[in-house]
Amino acid sequence: MAEAQELLRKYYGYPDFREGQKRVIESLLSGRDTLGIMPTGGGKSICYQVPALIMNGTTIVVSPLISLMKDQVDGLDSIGVPAAYINSSLSYAQVEMRIRKAERGEYKLLYVAPERLESERFLNLLAGLVVPMVAVDEAHCVSQWGHDFRPSYMRINELVSHLPDRPLLAAFTATATDQVREDIVKHLKLSEPQVFVTGFARENLSFSVIKGENKRDVLMGYIREHAGEAGIVYAATRKEVDQLCEYLLRQGVAAGKYHAGLTDKERADAQERFLYDEVRVMVASNAFGMGIDKSNVRYVVHFNMPKNMEAYYQEAGRAGRDGEPSDCMLLFSPQDIHIQKFLIEQSVSDPERQAQEYRRLQQMADYCHTPQCLQRYIVRYFGGDAEEDCGQCSNCVSPDMELTDITLEAQQIFSCVKRMRERFGMTLVASVLKGSRNKKVLDFGFDSLSTYGLMRTRTEKDIVDLIQLLVAEGYLQLTEGKYPVLRLSSKASDVLSGKERVVQRIRLKPSAPVIQDVEAELFDELRKLRTEIAKREGIPPYIVFPDSTLREMC
Ligand code: ADP
Ligand code: MG
Known about the structure:
It is a single chain. By secondary structure, this protein is an alpha/beta fold. It is 45% helix and 14% strand. Helix 11 links the parallel strand 10 and strand 11. Helix 14 packs across helix 20. 42% of the residues are buried.
């Protein structure tokens, strides 16, 4: 390890490995196949580059994108590490020449595009190399469950078996679902691998979830406060990207856009202008991503909730790659869940797979509703340990969140779910608790239930929020499928029987009816106060108090 540390200083100029890097490198140097699961920006490259420098021979790196490959090799060149790449941009003569050089031991790393592995002739050419290790970057491409399945990744094993000595295998990805992890181990034939899930806590990122506000207002407010900084705004559909970009341009923001409906040239131009800071804000669909490595992205705003936590964290993780403090803000509306359901229905036909996608969507929605530390939720989701709250996400800094005993409210909700025989979704349960006289409630005769109107002093939206919170915390479960139904979990039974209490960090709104006539003056005063607090604390005003809270205070 001392040698690795020395090389890190000498070539890269970094004083220390990150905690996760150290564990992966130690594992590889001890000769174990290793799977490293680290977030985007976590520093996966160094995990195989440094061991490659120590090992005898040429490490082969399989990497999916031609543009990334060239960047990596140029980067290595510039710090004096001999490396080369082989992909479809080279002529056969050039390929041969590079392999000759590799045979003579002139490269420590040889990057190979997976498509090359389809050629038997090419595999035979590689058989003459001394290869101590094969490193597979973006290893989730080997899994059909991942988001960028590449059939040629299945050929990596052919490469391994063509080599005279079985090399050490190192695989890296930012995708951490069990399914993908299993596929990587299985298809790459990792032998008794050590798996490390690390670095998912990105301390320089402040997460926030904003609900129930006008999204465009929040976004514009934020962009104005961060004029001059580079940011990405992700939206769910092409149409939304187009409209949002137009809106920002109308507001005088130097915005660009990127989605799969544009021509290659339009996309390349947009990316280039963003990279060179000509465009400050990039409005993009999820097509914008893997290829970009812009280090000074100060914020990533999700205008819509994405389909799962992997997608969210991959995209949000593009903020602050330089380690400077950056924001990741998600603007949630219940409509987002419907959009994502629709997109899943359109793109996934296999029922088992669909069920899984719905489950992951639910976990994404849970993130938007958890009252706990957001950073912690993320780290746990990816299978890491998080001992402490981050102290900077919107849940941690929200001054109006207090530990509140909501046992009574929870019991009311659970007994209503039970009375409705666990056969209905949260909207209808909320209507019944509210005592609403809508058609569905009356048609089912729910107005005669003993739980009917039990929570009539609250708004239906507040009741839905409470239900969502209880889902996020595992008291209630939502069945899979298009029309999820609320079910009680065993945790809920304990609450109903009075064995357990429910205490959550939450802001419970007063249940008395809110006075309608808002005193404009008072509202203005409160706003001024809010601005002061925000300035003093150095945080955006909407995090201090959203407008809705101010209105309630009036
Ligand atoms: P990933 O492939 O996991 O997305 P990269 O390997 O591209 O991440 O690394 C992301 C950034 O972190 C790069 O700019 C890299 O130079 C930097 N980095 C990696 N390891 C360290 C370290 N130990 N100390 C400081 N910076 C590091
Ligand atoms: Mg990488």
